[in-house]
Amino acid sequence: MEKKWEELSAAEKREARFKTWHSAEGVKFQSPEAETTYKKAVMRFKDAVLMEKAPDRVPIFPLGTFFQTQLYGVTPYEAMYDYGKLVSAHIKYLQDYKPDYYGSPAFVGSGKILEILGYKQYRWPGHGVSKESVYQYVEGEYMKAEDYQALIDDPTDFWLKTYMPRLSGALEPLATLSPFTWLWEIVVVSPQMIPFGTPPVQNALKALLEAGTEALGWIQQIVGFEMEARGMGFPTAMGGAAKAPFDILADTLRGTRAIMVDLYRRPEMVLKALERITPLYIKQGVGMATGAGNPVVFIPLHKGADGFMSDEQFRTFYWPSLKALILGLVAEGCVPFCFCEGSYNTRLEYLKELPKGSCLWIFDRTDMAKAKKLLEKAICIGGNVPAGMILTGTAEQVRAYCKNLIDVAGKGGGYIMALGTSMDEAKPDTLHAMIDFTKEYGVYK
Q1: How far apart are CA 321 and CA 342, in angstroms?
Q2: What are phi and psi of 442, to 5 degrees?
Q3: Helix or strand or coil: residue 361?
Q4: What element of type H or E holds 362?
Q5: CB–CB of 319/269 below 8 Å?
Q6: What is the CA 292 to chain-centroid distance, rounded?
Q7: How many whole angstroms separate alpha carbon 302 and alpha carbon 341?
Q8: If 0-12 CB within 10 Å is exposed, 13-18 middle and 19+ buried, where does residue 374 land?
Q9: CA-CA distance, 98 to 104, in Å (whole number)?
Q10: Distance (Å, rounded) from C-alpha 157 to C-alpha 177?
Q11: What is the predicted pLDDT for the residue at 29?
């Protein structure tokens, strides 16, 4: 009798997810060669991450937000407002550069949706920054110190009635709603509906409907691109996404200054909040990976880098919830993809606590020789190609740098060639040098 999903081990679940990704069900390949290329790329990624054997060669995944469109003269404003131009540029990029994996244009987002919602947390092209500029985060206390208990008591109610109204001008009236948990018997049904009859709340709902209609048109273009990209032979190396729980508090909710004050003034509330929200982001990562048929869950890491907090603070506030997130994803057969912005030289020892062959860590400014020595045959590492070299260096410099990375970090497998940061601009000659040289030199005998 076939086992039920909940009866499978973590390794069995992971194998099932890899099989789904590899099978590419529903994809119409443009040729037998495209199908072979796709399936080889999936196996190359799997072999690199699991480290049970070396892949055929070093996998290549240059991750970016706007550089794919910038290469073809599409401005950031056009990328966010003209979905046809966004998709067309991404297709041309795959045709011209042939990386192993594509990064979804969904990462760019829709400027029209942000406009409808009156979104406050970012300035985007044409709205707070020039049409030629990429979007910029507007840090603020979107959650106040006195809101910790509300977040801990009911995260969904807090998000709906406090966070979203502060985030979006169009949704400010949602703050007047009563908790939906008050809807428990006939005598409270009618009173519960009163706010929905007021013009401000109705306008907020209309904004959500308008944003939803726009989102459907946007996602149709994105899905069309993704099916075409796979048909060309390019899988994506990201099935889902989650965020380090501390970064949810420090980036999304409290802001940098406020969270650092909290570590001293209300550390117990920080720890309770981290414990409360961690399961939510395990669930998000698993759900997105399942829906995408791809086990890889992207986790950008921000506030845990060297120099941001002491080792004691990292050990107390950052690592336990991040480790719980990673282990929760691994237990469901997912592959966490931790994208470490900044330097993680003083954090590498913590990674030895993770199961062998369970995840991928892409590094920005970390010492790759040190990372390889500490984590060899334990955790797959990658990245470290400097953004500055791609933008201002020569093709020869890039080839030399990639050669050293392969020689130092790529020995025996367990390494993926990638940029150290998600780039918004690139030069054709240096980007070609990174991709083409890795394919030529990074072959395992």
Answers
A1: 20
A2: -85, 35
A3: strand
A4: strand 360-363
A5: no
A6: 14
A7: 6
A8: middle
A9: 15
A10: 10
A11: 98
**For the chain, what's the residue count?**
445
> Could you tell me the two tokens for 340?
């470490």
3-state secondary structure of 285: helix
Rounded to 5, what percent of the chain is helix, strand, coil?
A: 60, 10, 30
pLDDT in tens, 70-100: 999 999 999 999 999 999 999 999 999 999 9
Report the amino acid identity of residue 240. Answer: G
Contact 174, 161 (CB under 8 A): yes
CA-CA-CA-CA dihedral for 255, 250, 123, 103, to nearest 10: 170
Mean pLDDT of 124-151: 97
* Separation between Cα atoms, residue 421 and residue 255, nearest integer Å: 21
Please name the residue that has the structure tokens 């993809």: 337
Is residue 187 packed enough to be buried (19+ CB in 10 Å), middle (13-18) or exposed (0-12)? exposed
How many CB atoms within 10 Å of residue 213? 12
Beta carbons of 354 and 333 less than 8 angstroms apart: no
| Amino acid letter for position 247 | D
The pLDDT value recorded for residue 2 is: 84
- Separation CA 340–CA 225 (nearest Å): 28
Token pair of 3 as six digits: 């086992």
pLDDT tier for residue 41 given thresholds of 50, 70 and 90: very high
Domain ranges, ordered by start, for the chain:
109-235
Rounded Cα distance between 224 and 245, Å, is 32
Whether residue 339 contacts residue 298, with contact meaning beta carbons closer than 8 Å, is answered with: yes
Radius of gyration of the chain (CA): 23
What is the identity of the amino acid at 306? D
Alpha helices in 83-147 (DSSP H): 83-97, 111-117
Q: What residues contact 75, with CB distance under 8 A and at least 6 apart?
A: 69, 125, 131, 132
Which two three-digit tokens encode residue 410? 């790529």
Task: Report the C-alpha gap between 142 and 155 in whole angstroms.
Answer: 14
Using CA atoms, how far apart are residues 296 and 49, in angstroms rounded to an integer? 10
What is the C-alpha to C-alpha distance for residues 291 and 219, in angstroms, rounded to an integer?
14
